[in-house]
Amino acid sequence: MGTLLVTGGAGFVGSALVRQLIGETESTVINVDSLTYAGNLDALADARNSPRHVLERVDIRDSGGLKRLFRDYRPDSVMHLAAETHVDRSIADPAPFIETNVVGTANLLGAALAYWSTLDSRAQSDFRLLHVSTDEVYGDLGPDDPPFSETTPCAPNSPYAASKAAADHLARAWHRTYGLPVLITRSCNNYGPWQVPEKLIPLMVANAVAGRPLPVYGTGANVREWVHVDDHCRALRRVLEAGQAGRIYNVGGQAGLTNLAIVEAICASLDRRLPRAEGSYAELVEFVADRPGHDRRYAVDDGRIQGELAWQRLEHFDRALDETVQWYLAHPQWLEPAARSEIARFASER
Known about the structure:
Blueprint: E1 3-7, H1 12-24, E2 28-32, E3 53-56, H2 63-73, E4 77-80, H3 87-92, H4 95-116, H5 121-126, E5 128-134, H6 159-178, E6 182-187, E7 189-191, H7 200-210, E8 214-217, E9 223-224, E10 226-228, H8 229-242, E11 248-251, E12 257-258, H9 259-273, E13 285-288, H10 303-309, H11 317-330, H12 332-340
Parallel strand pairs: 1-2, 1-4, 2-3, 4-5, 5-6, 6-11, 7-10, 8-13
Antiparallel strand pairs: 9-12
Helix pairs in contact: 1-8, 2-4, 4-6, 7-9, 7-12, 9-11
């Protein structure tokens, strides 16, 4: 895969991808991250010390900085993961989501196109730009609706989802209009180690261990699919290697679960691993006012990536969730921001 330019490579999914690329391939990774609150160099683990890993602290809103990266490193492909991703934050202040997810993606596409246009025909044919998106761009489903497919129209309901849908449309347009070899993936919820502690699973572990309430929106009946971050990263690599330019690939998880069921599973894992004297951690669950516009249910049909590219999930949810809880218990310093911040009031699965 040669030299890969990975944006957002110090974030949750991005760092897992970089760890895989450094540990399992011979690729050189140019890791482009502005290191906001969502980026952490510790999540890169041993990969950050590899001679094949280069960290560039560049914001994708900086078009000049992006052009320099293409000029200096001449990547063979791009994997674009940099984004603002927290729905609650997008409701409170949509501007950073528009600036990063929409304007930043437009900047990256412009810089990539200018660079790609200078390549010889073989290098142009081999080049790929993978834009990593989310199932939230599809909107939500009723309880009996079939899963989203790649041809389902976008109908985003939150500022975050709208900004990602806009970015998806830009990526598609750069392929259709200019011929830039773009691929798009849309994944369900991710879980695993090193996730920012304002997201549902690490936040629930942090609050439970501290004896704080476990806030669950509404009745907790909103349904999500979950895929382990390592399985997602293997999907991204497979799409980059063998996907067809111009196509969208859904990345799904195992059977959909309500948010309340996820929280109860976390509590059950904690009950086994770190029992409370006062009873089950589930007693800390506290239902809070629902989020505005909260999507009811997500589910995606990922038959395309499984059938065309032979991708399969390797992680079993029950076992991997329990292992994820254990990882957070073993890394209490990772959860400390949840105790020091307003994020403890969030109940977001994104």
